[in-house]
Specification:
Elements: H1 3-6, E1 32-36, H2 49-54, E2 58-63, E3 71-74, H3 80-85, E4 89-92, H4 98-101, H5 106-113, E5 118-120, H6 126-129, E6 135-136, H7 140-153, H8 157-168, H9 171-181
Parallel strand pairs: 1-2, 1-4, 2-3, 4-5, 5-6
Length: 183
């Protein structure tokens, strides 16, 4: 971290995610993997679309566009959490490009907050966020294997991710941390 070269004390305050107290809606009847984002980053999803299908999942995309064959759910702040929570797994593919390595991992945090297990590329902060239970995958075969593993586990990673985000990334947890740090 460049800041550590110039300052004796560097504190990293991570991105926060909203935790809703609403109960999780019923899961969709067929295993469904979800990706949330925007049209500009939709190409990140392309390399894993076939892996999702090979693992027997339907693909839900919460965005302003979706790949052919995916269910497009237009993004809305009011429905985002519920539409995520109906799914069985969250997808967070990223290329290894410098821009992607600098991303904050918000998708993974959103999935955890909604009680979902996640599969993510081991790029940037997503490697650290895997501590919450996300499976890391690089190749299409690894993506398929990770999604199949989540099916076998029957959602065991969802509560682990939720607890992880509540402890480290929810606004109340970060507010407590800031109270201890700031004079």
């Amino acid at each position: 971290m460049i800041a550590r070269l110039r300052a004796r004390r560097v504190l990293v305050i991570p991105t926060t995610v909203e935790i809703t107290a609403a109960p999780r809606p019923p899961l969709l009847p067929h295993p469904t993997a979800v990706w949330i984002g925007q049209k500009a980053t939709l190409p990140y999803l392309d390399p894993v679309v076939q892996a999702v299908r090979d693992a027997g999942y339907l693909l839900r995309v919460i965005a302003d566009a979706a790949p052919e064959g995916a269910e497009l759910v237009p993004w809305s702040l009011e429905t985002e959490h519920a539409r995520l929570a109906e799914c069985h797994a969250g997808l967070a593919p990223l290329p290894g490009a410098p821009f992607a390595r600098g991303k904050c991992g918000y998708k993974v945090l959103q999935y955890y907050a909604a009680g979902l297990p996640a599969v993510a590329s081991p790029v940037g902060v997503q490697r650290t966020l895997a501590e919450g239970g996300a499976l890391l995958a690089r190749t299409p075969a690894e993506w398929t294997a990770a999604l199949l593993r989540l099916k076998e586990e029957g959602g065991l990673r969802g509560p682990r991710g939720r607890a992880f985000v509540e402890r480290r990334y929810a606004a109340p947890a970060l507010a407590e941390r800031l109270k201890r740090i700031l004079p």
